[in-house]
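Checked the freezer inventory, then went back to the computational side. Two predictions to log before the end of the day. The first one is the construct we discussed on Monday; recording sequence and tokens without edits.
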Amino acid sequence: MKIAIVLSQGKHYFYYDRVVRSLHAMGHEVRVVCPADFSEDGNKSGRALIKLLKEETGIKLENALLPRRKNPYWVGLLRNLRDYAIFVRPEHPTPYIAPIWIGKELSQKMLRRLELPGIRSFIRSKAARILFAWLESHIQPDDAIVDWFKEFQPQVVFASPFVFREDFEVEYTKAAKALKIPAIASLLSWDNLTSKGTYHVKPDRLFVWNQSLVAEAVQIHDFEAQRIFVTGAPVYDPWFDLSPSTDRASFCVAIGLDPSKPYVLYLCSSKSISERETDLIQMLISHFESVDEKHRPALVVRPHPFKDMEADGFENEWVKVFPKGGQRPDTDETRSTYYDSLYHCAAVIGVNTTGFLESAILDKPCLTLVNSTTRAGQEMRAHFKHLMDAGYIEVAKDFPELVSKTMQIISGADLQKDNRVKFVNDFIRPRGLDVSASTVMTGAILAVANGRKPSDWKEMEKAL
């Protein structure tokens, strides 16, 4: 069987590493399609994809084809307006993000016009969404991409993340549908449905992590529930199998900490969530300094891999930045380093980070600060509500309360353990803690390729 995996960027490959490797191991011909301009190393690189291609020579990388003919201006405008319309529709929880997401694509003059009462009212309406979809349906698929599909003749196309601005994913799906090739879109991350664009060409199936994201796809993106399939989060499958690569004492000594004391791990957020995070960290350090040195925990700060951090100003004998420059957990090596820092910590602090998900998998108590300094990256971001609804994160309204709650956890008062376990069950592995999301997704892809429902994934697994 031939399968096309279409990704917007090489750096996104690692989300589906186990899925792709499983499909290949089963004997299927897999081609990964993405722009081939990614670097070999660094946090924004395609190093996980490069590792795959070196280890599995039967898998081929195809440089994504840009449309042979340049789309007219109105096509780009249509898709930008459609993305904008998704944000401002009544069902969207954070409409104020629209200018942030679309601002670089539309002029300030256009944005001001879209805010005029009559225009905004129409843009928010169902009639506008129907009109935009109708106009999109009249954009013909690109000839070069159609020719590529005719040559490769895959039985299924799998595209992700799809809701970013890269038009070629839309073009590949449009071409696949024109040729009656089943098309699957897969949600890359838990914030994509509320913080990115929309699906300009609806795939035959949409794969999401859990039922909460099913609801977002239906309410915000007008998907029919029966076209959505819950797989769990395949990107986190390795976290259920890992074990520490070193003991706690050795880990602490290696990064310069006293192994006789517990440490708290601070996980930094992206720039869009917390732009001046070093100020927040310095405030946190100053409040921990009020704790008696005999009982005060050490603090390990893990930088966000996509955000520069000047750490020289606050590192000392009990505060360490590790690893320097951040490190994306997209390979076995970088994931192991991150796992060790989580496994050996006493608690995790952050603003709004995917690190809270990994922390829950490792059953680590989590804390956050919610006040005027952090609200823009929390309450004004819809995906943060998933964490709050789960109730497994201790919330403090100020730094003294945050330090106090942290010290209580270190002393053994872990009150949210049951909620953490439930969150992992519901949000990350809804098919069961012992059921790999990658296994579910692999079977579901093959089911769709064979003209069956993705819910037949178990039967496909048995057949193979």
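The second is the one RB wanted added to the comparison set:
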Amino acid sequence: MNNNNESAVAKGLAYEERVTDFLNRHGLDAHRTNVTNPDDPEEYKHGFDGGVDIIARYKSENKIKRDITFYIQCKDHKNELTKSAISEVY
């Protein structure tokens, strides 16, 4: 539960953590970019994420065996996203 006295940064980090936990519970291997993680071994995104908050990988178990990597930018807003927020990640 968020405290109304929390800073916007603290709320954002807590939201990213909830999204990461959700993805991990549903079969993806997800890691936040502002911490060292195996999907970013060179720490390219560590510290400055370029708009990417979470890197999540889905390992396919079907006959194609193709892994899929998702680069996710979290937004916890009540308003619609702007084009610039979306193009940041792209």
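For RB: The chain is about 30% helix and 15% strand. The mean pLDDT is 77. Let me know if you want it refolded.
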